[in-house]
Specification:
CATH class: Mainly Beta
CATH architecture: Beta Barrel
Number of strands: 5
Oligomer: single chain
CATH superfamily: Nucleic acid-binding proteins
Radius of gyration: 14 Å
Order of helices and strands: EEEEE
Shape: globular
Largest sheet: 5 strands, mixed, barrel
Amino acid sequence: MNERGRKRVLLGTIVSDKMDKSVVVQVERLVQHKVYKKYIKSYKKYAAHDENNLCRPGDVVKITESRPLSKTKKFRVSEIVKRAV
């Protein structure tokens, strides 16, 4: 399948929900060190659109890439995988 039209789907944890209809999602990935070949955790934060304000900090969510919704928001929350306790 070609790359065009394929949207990235990432799994991450909600860090902040202080904005209206927006959340900050922290995505963790493992990166191998170039010299020592040891795997290191690398984190990146993405702003995502949460239409109904359902997400809370600590929730594990799946975010999907979409058209730019604002200057920083290019992802939407597609589903809540696990609720925070």
